[in-house]
């Protein structure tokens, strides 16, 4: 028998042709695509050039609040009475020979405030009290200083443990004369000094900055006051004000 013949698949040729109108439309469409791509590329390049030419400014850093001072001063000067108070922050304070130690106040574990008070003008036989009050003085009226500064809400109702230098914890934090003694008639130039760990030099509920110092006579009347901005003279009838 002879070899079987191989079957060959028929060759199929597909062809098509476009009319001139179709070719024209295709060319126009291709040209539009090329134009769109060109403009997109041009816009992107422009953005890159402008960005590099005008770089964005970095935001300004937020200014830091200045640190709390280590010294605060209050000066009071009225006809017949003058006082200068200095509050100085002390790190790991130690009692010295020139300051009588006050139990619980002379050696704070970390930090304490040393207070210097120099004054003249207390009449002989009288005692003036002085306190830190809650608010700064507004206008010319010392009454705007508010009540005594007492952030710990200390109570003075226990007659067995009154507010004095032996029980400073029973005193309001702002009752300086209660904790450290009243202002009495002393020789000119005499300096009173003590430590007080409750007097923080900060602008906060527990800090003395932004508050005021008020002097009271024996009747409890506010005769003088001062804060960080104003120097005020006060009496029951009239007040005068002078900038520091």
Automatic annotation (TrEMBL):
Where is the segment annotated Disordered?
143-178
One GO biological process term: superoxide metabolic process
From start to end residue, where is composition biased (Basic and acidic residues)? Answer: 155-173
Q: Where is the Superoxide dismutase copper/zinc binding domain?
A: 111-219
Recorded GO terms, molecular function?
copper ion binding
Q: Which Gene3D superfamilies match?
A: Superoxide dismutase, copper/zinc binding domain
What is the recorded name of this protein?
Answer: Superoxide dismutase copper/zinc binding domain-containing protein
């Amino acid at each position: 028998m002879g070899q079987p013949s191989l079957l060959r698949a028929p060759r199929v040729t597909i062809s098509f042709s476009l009319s001139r109108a179709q070719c024209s439309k295709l060319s126009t469409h291709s040209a539009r695509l090329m134009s769109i791509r060109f403009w997109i590329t041009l816009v992107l390049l422009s953005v890159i050039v402008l960005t590099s030419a005008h770089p964005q400014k970095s935001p300004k850093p937020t200014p830091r609040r200045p640190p709390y001072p280590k010294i605060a001063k209050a000066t009071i000067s009225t006809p017949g009475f003058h006082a200068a108070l200095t509050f100085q922050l002390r790190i790991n304070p130690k009692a010295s020979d020139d300051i009588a130690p006050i139990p619980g106040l002379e050696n704070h574990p970390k930090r304490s405030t040393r207070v210097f008070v120099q004054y003249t003008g207390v009449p002989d036989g009288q005692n003036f009290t002085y306190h830190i009050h809650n608010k700064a003085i507004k206008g010319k009226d010392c009454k705007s200083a508010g009540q005594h500064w007492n952030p710990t809400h200390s109570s003075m109702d226990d007659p067995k443990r009154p507010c004095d230098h032996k029980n400073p914890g029973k005193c309001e934090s702002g009752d300086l004369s209660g904790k450290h003694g009243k202002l009495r008639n002393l020789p000119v130039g005499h300096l009173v000094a003590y430590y007080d760990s409750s007097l923080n030099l900060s602008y906060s509920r527990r800090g003395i900055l932004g508050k005021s110092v008020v002097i009271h006579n024996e009747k409890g009347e506010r005769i003088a006051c001062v804060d960080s901005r104003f120097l005020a003279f006060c009496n029951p009838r009239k007040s005068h004000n002078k900038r520091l």
